[in-house]
Amino acid sequence: xxxxxxxxxxxxxxxxxxxxxxxxxxxxxxxxxxxxxxxxxxxxxxxxxxxxxxxxxxxxxxxxxxxxxxxxxxxxxxxxxxxxxxxxxxxxxxxxxxxxxxxxxxxxxxxxxxxxxxxxxxxxxxxxxxxxxxxxxxxxxxxxxxxxxxxxxxxxxxxxxxxxxxxxxxxxxxxxxxxxxxxxxxxxxxxxxxxxxxxxxxxxxxxxxxxxxxxxxxxxxxxxxxxxxxxxxxxxxxxxxxxxxxxxxxxxxxxxxxxxxxxxxxxxxxxxxxxxxxxxxxxxxxxxxxxxxxxxxxxxxxxxxxxxxxxxxxxxxxxxxxxxxxxxxxxxxxxxxxxxxxxxxxxxxxxxxxxxxxxxxxxxxxxxxxxxxxxxxxxxxxxxxxxxxxxxxxxxxxxxxx
Length: 402
Prior knowledge:
Elements (H helix, E strand, L loop, with lengths): L22 H18 L5 H7 L4 H29 L1 H20 L4 H28 L6 H8 L1 H20 L2 H21 L18 H5 L2 H30 L6 H25 L1 H19 L5 H28 L6 H29 L2 H29 L1
């Protein structure tokens, strides 16, 4: 196995010789599936709801920015606390806010209150997803981080196959408020499943350390810093893809985006485990660069897309690129740290991602308002492709400097 950072890691779990994962691994996947379902059902209808309550394209970008900024602020603290107190307390706190997010939307009849709902929802995402990645990594041996995290990543991807279509159908059949309550009920089931997860000392779950958890110590690892640069390049296209695709489809008369998001998620779910295994075998660099190249080309394609099935095809390609790069970057971060820094490293990784999702969506929202979505997606694609070029030509030099 090509795992250059393995000497710095601590083997985590007790995955059996036949490749079976322990039962908490699957419980964690179930809770993630339900909670992310409750979030992703909102994706295709949130931009439309913002318009419904009197908002604009810029307000849509602002809403995404507030959501991701809340997650960003929560990640550093919850990452440290998950290392020091254990994963479960942070998972439970995150599940409470995460499952309550759709309900907060139901009581937000204007843009101002909707921004508050987005902030609470984003805080839940920041808590849960940071601790969940560390929890799953605790269960894995060091030479199977890519594969294990890739398999675990199927849960939110599979949720997204169904959730956007479900969200659109709920709004067509009922109304926004009823739909938000239904999404909240699904998230509530995810909260109940989270309660089943073992606490500090169970099976292969390692005990937390009162001295563990340090953002600075995590940042000192080259693998964490290099992966954070990759997450920055992923943040902009992901934010604009989620935030503005329904509006792009609406302005170009391309139909609803429920199916588009479903195809995006399905291809991601299919590719992610294979990308994780490729990372374990060949290293993260090649997988990351290939995934980012695919993302950049997809963004460029969105700038000119004019047919519904072309849009569906681009979503499938985007799913491949996002899953490949995401699985490789997740594995690289966990390869670079030991048990006592998993939460902190995950927090740093996704703080960078959230920053670029939020500020990118806000800035590109204003750009779309001033120009159009074609110009916006073309610029995003150009930035990503430039980053791939720089990363491909100067990877070793960058790693030495950081």
